[in-house]
Amino acid sequence: MKVGCIGLGDIAQKAYLPVLGALPGLELHLHTRTPATLDRVADTLRLPAGQRHRDLDALLARGLDAAFVHAPTVAHPEIVTRLLEAGVPTYVDKPLAYRLTDSERLVRLAEERSTSLAVGFNRRFAPGYAQCADHPRELILMQKNRVGLPEKPRTMILDDFIHVVDTLRFLAPGPVDDVTVRARVEDGLLHHVVLQLAGDGFTALGVMNRLSGSNEEILEVSGQDTKRQVVNLAEVIDHKGQPTVRRRGDWVPVARQRGIEQAVLAFLDAVRAGKVLSARDALATHELCERVVRAVEERSAAA
């Protein structure tokens, strides 16, 4: 199975390549336009010259069975278009694109070509978060906070807050019929944003504070007088009277803890089975993110 990895930045090197590089029966091909990075990463994986590519055309000429796209977001529309037009099942880091029109076009193209398109919402596969889907969820609260990182609204929401948005959608126990957005913007930079989703019998709150003084991610789901809390994707704490703590095992790889390994395997298994994966549900997350961006921008313009 020939698999391409396009873009060799931190997320590819830390999360995806350790998984892909260890899979049996997989012929890994790397692509980046930075020669030093290409050689350094390929040397680490002991890949021959024929599996190192500085040109996308040369990579596509190898007849890929699947591809992973970890290039910067601004490059996603062009790269994903080329892959889909070539009929290559494609897994791409979130977001598909910064602009909803581009994301919609890519999803349509994948459907027209009957080619898989998957978006890297790895938290859906993270063990702690997947377990929350089996817990009562009358109230869902997710915080993903950072230190000293206010950013332009569209970039922050599409590159980072999108994980919060998708997790709330994933865990919502029913249709959402009310959406509320609150935010603080100063000098064109988004300091914090709060998203509230509500439906019949549930409320879901997503919070991101880029000036919180702490790098943390905390998910809580509660209902029927019980609560499950997941801290930094590693600790699962069940509250019913006395709390019960389950910590990540010492030998559990980070990629497995964060759901990346499971997402990779699920995608490749679908490719091997000839199953076409749809990005329609991922597009719904992008649509909600666009709604958040517009609300934040309108609030900023009115200030």
Number of helices: 10
Quaternary assembly: single chain
What structural class is derived from the secondary structure elements? Answer: alpha/beta
Shape: globular
Helix content: 25-40%
Question: Mean of residue pLDDT?
Answer: 95
Largest sheet strand order: 8-9-10-7-11-12-13-14
Strand content: 25-35%
What's the order of the H and E elements? EHEHEHEHEHEHEHEEEEEEEHHH
Rg computed from alpha carbons, rounded to a whole number of angstroms: 20 Å
Structure summary, number of beta strands: 14
> Distance between the terminal alpha carbons, to the nearest Å?
54 Å
- Summarize the main sheet: 8 strands, mixed
Q: Note poorly predicted spans.
A: none
